[in-house]
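Structure in, sequence out. Go:
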């Protein structure tokens, strides 16, 4: 597309950027929904979500690319309200998918009945953000996989009966 065509289609660079973020988010949400289908154990699905995210973050042969939302939108959000809104909506969309699957895992007794689904979704999301940043910082795939494994153990742990109220 030529510059006048881009301006006609999107209005300006920021609108084009917002549309790119939206498409990136939608593709990520769709992929996450597919992986968190409830067809397998929550632990296995969560492991696949984190592995798939790391695959995306490490996809470049030259340098890890991280995540478009975390790598660029989080920086631009400070000065651009439209980017901040898109980032907030996007984080909420990912958390909603995670929370829905976590609620199913609680109902299926894969997690403690009193587990905080919203809190665990936010923790999972935070782990994904950390994986993106750490990939960009040059951490190895092995290190990222170790972090994912520790996160899965933390999120999926069930407390012994004597620790439950």
């Amino acid at each position: 597309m030529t510059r006048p065509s881009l301006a006609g289609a999107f209005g300006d660079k920021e609108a084009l950027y917002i549309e790119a973020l939206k498409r990136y988010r939608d593709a990520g949400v769709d992929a996450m929904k597919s992986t968190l289908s409830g067809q397998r154990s929550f632990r296995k699905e969560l492991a696949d979500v984190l592995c798939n995210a790391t695959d995306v973050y490490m996809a470049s042969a030259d340098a890890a690319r991280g995540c478009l939302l975390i790598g660029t939108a989080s920086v631009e959000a400070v000065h651009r309200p439209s980017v901040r809104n898109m980032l907030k909506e996007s984080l909420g969309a990912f958390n909603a998918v995670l929370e829905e699957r976590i609620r199913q895992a609680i109902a299926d007794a894969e997690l403690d009945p009193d587990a905080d689904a919203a809190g665990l979704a936010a923790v999972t999301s935070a782990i994904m953000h950390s994986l993106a940043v750490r990939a960009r910082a040059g951490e190895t795939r092995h290190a990222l996989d170790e972090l994912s494994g520790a996160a899965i153990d933390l999120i999926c742990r069930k407390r012994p009966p004597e620790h439950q109220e």
